[in-house]
Amino acid sequence: MLSPSAATLRLFLHVLAATVWVGGQLTLAGLVPGLRAIAPDAPRAVARRFNRIAWPAFAVLILTGLWNIAAIDVTDTSTEYQVTLFLHITIAAVSGISAAVHAGATTKVVLAGAGALSGLSAIGALFLGVLLRSG
C-alpha cells in the first residue's frame, strides 16, 4: 500500500469539502421541487439544515486552499497556472458570496438568482481546481 503524506491529507480534505459544497448544492437544487410539493416551507427548512454542514465545508475549502497555495512556489509556475489559480480563487469567492446572499434573501428573485450563481460558480471553481491539479 502507498504511504499517505501531508499532501495526501491536504488534497483529501479539500476534495471532501468540495464534494459537500458543490454536491450538496446540486442535490438541493434537484430536491426543491419535491420539497415544495410536501410543504411550501420545506425547502427553506432543508436548506437551513444543509447550511450547518455546507458552511463548515466552505471554511475547510478556504483553509485547505490556502494550504495548497502555501505548498507550491507560485513564482516557479507558469503565467497560465497563475491566471488559472486567480480565476479559481475568484470564482470560489463568488460561490461563497452568492451563497451568503442566497441564504439571506428576502425576495424570490434574489433567492433564485443568488442560488443559481452560487451553484454555477461552485461548478466552475471545481472545474478550475481539477484543471490546476491535472495541469
Structure description:
- The structure is a single chain.
- The chain is elongated.
- Helix 1 packs antiparallel against helix 2, helix 1 packs antiparallel against helix 4 and helix 3 (79-103) packs antiparallel against helix 4 (108-134).
- The protein has one domain.
- The chain has 135 residues and is mostly helical.
- Helices cover 84% and strands 0% of the residues.
- The protein is built from 4 helices and no strands.
Which characteristics define this entry?
single chain, elongated, mainly alpha, 84% helix
Radius of gyration: 17 Å
Number of strands: 0
What's the story with the biggest beta sheet? none
Note the gap between the termini: 26 Å
Strand content: under 5%
**Which series of helices and strands comes N to C?**
HHHH
Number of H- or I-type helical stretches = 4
Mean pLDDT: 96
What are the segments in which pLDDT stays under 50 over at least 5 consecutive residues?
none
How many structurally independent domains?
Answer: 1
Shape: elongated
Structural class: mainly alpha
State the share of residues found in helices, binned by percent: over 70%
Briefly summarize what is shown.
By secondary structure, the protein is mainly α.
